[in-house]
């Protein structure tokens, strides 16, 4: 089965908690704090690998989690950093953030890597909180949670040339003749239900990749006939070969087909519609007179298109078509991506602990404080130690929590709730 789109859930590793420890050795009766820092959580990294062809494995495994960082320990030992999770995907995979719809990265080269979810920072051990007046801190800092996000993977095939046209115009037959590909061929609509790729090795020229894009029909840009899924695969092509059934064997008018397909391309993406396009009038072996294509060829040339008269079955005209294709690919060179791409800098993860935003909800004499930094702060506090509680109160004051509670009219003995912690308020 060919799978070219998948939605998965990512969870980077949490940072390890800082250690709370004191040096205890013989002949050292007053050893100071020596709790080490927690290790960073593992990142989730995507890597393009040309050994993969589809996104099939993500159809069955949707949740992916990196390793957590280990907690710091005594002896100033830093916890082990969590291993990164490397997720391999086919070359040509685009990764989008589900929530924003923005493209995170475009993995278009073999071996290319991109960090999509960042592991949390490790917390500081109690050795970092010793001062001249607080020589035995009995608290340490909690680790930050790793980033969680849902992403959408989309595979866009890496073809130099895209074959487009209505169903049954002979695209699969042409592909089978000029490459070693073996597409399924039959006389019914949407015979090709997945894009077929083939490598064309023509004479002594450099080989190029050609994709037979499954048939388009009216409304394809809106999803009719799965056309929007197929169109995704022609986004990277440098050149489009538009095949028309010159014989009219399907009972359609070739020029009308041509206009409808280009309308679908334009509706789907303006940039894609502007790709260099040449026209191949196929199935001329079914015509009684060779001159029957003259009028159609002239009409298309008036529109500015190069037109080739071919028969994929007999091989007529294929030399001319492929020679010109190779020449155009050399002339076109690299092409501009047709999809929007946000700079990577905008996707850098900022740990929640750095955010100073919080909200407070009041329910009579209960004030519920909600903030991203609270969980880590609470993990940092030893509520049986006065120094630790003092640190806890200073952080809340610095964040502006107490000031906001006063503004809301909190009174002595009102209850403040932070996560699972509740305490009575006293000025």
From TrEMBL:
It is found in: Cytoplasm. Keywords: Cytoplasm, GTP-binding, Hydrolase, Magnesium, Metal-binding, Nucleotide-binding. GO terms for cellular component: cytoplasm. Residues 350-427 form the OCT domain. GTP binds at residues 165-172, 190-194, 212-215, 282-285, 311-313. It is an enzyme of class 3 (hydrolase). Its cofactor is Mg(2+). It comes from the Bacteria. CDD domains: Obg. Mg(2+) binds at residues 172, 192. Residues 159-330 form the OBG-type G domain. GO terms for biological process: ribosome biogenesis. The keyword Manganese does not apply. Its EC number is 3.6.5.-. Residues 1-158 form the Obg domain. One of its GO terms (molecular function) is GTP binding. Its main location: cytoplasm. NCBIfam families: Obg_CgtA, Obg_CgtA_exten, PRK12296.1, PRK12297.1, PRK12299.1. HAMAP family: GTPase_Obg. Belongs to the TRAFAC class OBG-HflX-like GTPase superfamily. OBG GTPase family. An essential GTPase which binds GTP, GDP and possibly (p)ppGpp with moderate affinity, with high nucleotide exchange rates and a fairly low GTP hydrolysis rate. Plays a role in control of the cell cycle, stress response, ribosome biogenesis and in those bacteria that undergo differentiation, in morphogenesis control. Monomer. This is GTPase Obg.
């Amino acid at each position: 089965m060919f799978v070219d789109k998948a939605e998965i859930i990512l969870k980077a590793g949490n940072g390890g908690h800082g250690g709370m420890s004191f040096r205890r050795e013989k002949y050292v009766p007053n050893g100071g704090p020596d709790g080490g820092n927690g290790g960073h959580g593992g990142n989730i990294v995507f890597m393009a690998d040309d050994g993969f062809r589809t996104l099939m494995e993500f159809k069955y495994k949707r949740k992916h989690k990196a390793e957590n960082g280990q907690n710091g320990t005594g002896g100033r030992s830093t916890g082990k950093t969590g291993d990164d999770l490397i997720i391999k995907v086919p070359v040509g995979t685009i990764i989008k953030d589900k929530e924003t719809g923005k493209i995170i990265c475009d993995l278009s080269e073999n071996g290319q890597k991109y960090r999509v979810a960042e592991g949390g920072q490790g917390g500081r051990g109690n050795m970092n909180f010793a001062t001249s007046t607080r020589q035995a801190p009995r608290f340490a800092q909690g680790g930050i949670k790793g980033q969680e996000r849902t992403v959408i993977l989309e595979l866009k095939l890496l073809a130099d040339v895209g074959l487009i046209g209505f169903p049954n115009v002979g695209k699969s037959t042409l592909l089978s003749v000029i490459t070693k590909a073996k597409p399924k061929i039959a006389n019914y609509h949407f015979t090709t239900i997945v894009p077929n790729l083939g490598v064309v090795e023509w004479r002594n020229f450099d080989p190029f990749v050609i994709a037979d894009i499954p048939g388009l029909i009216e409304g394809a840009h809106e999803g009719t006939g799965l056309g929007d899924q197929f169109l995704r695969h022609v986004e990277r092509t440098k050149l489009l070969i538009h095949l028309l059934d010159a014989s009219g064997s399907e009972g359609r008018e070739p020029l009308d087909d041509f206009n409808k397909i280009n309308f679908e391309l334009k509706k789907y993406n303006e940039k894609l519609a502007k790709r260099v396009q040449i026209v191949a009038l196929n199935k001329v072996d079914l015509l009684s007179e060779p001159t029957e294509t003259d009028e159609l060829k002239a009409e298309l040339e008036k529109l500015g298109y190069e037109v080739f008269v071919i028969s994929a079955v007999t091989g007529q005209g294929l030399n001319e078509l492929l020679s010109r294709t190779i020449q155009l690919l050399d002339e076109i060179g690299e092409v501009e991506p047709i999809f929007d791409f946000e700079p990577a800098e905008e996707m850098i993860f900022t740990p929640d602990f750095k955010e100073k935003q919080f909200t407070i909800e009041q329910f009579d004499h209960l004030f519920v404080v909600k903030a991203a930094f609270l969980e880590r702060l609470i993990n940092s506090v030893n509520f049986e130690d006065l120094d630790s509680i003092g640190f806890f109160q200073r952080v809340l004051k610095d964040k502006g929590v107490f000031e906001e509670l006063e503004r809301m009219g909190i009174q002595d003995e009102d209850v403040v709730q932070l996560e699972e912690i509740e305490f009575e308020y006293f000025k």
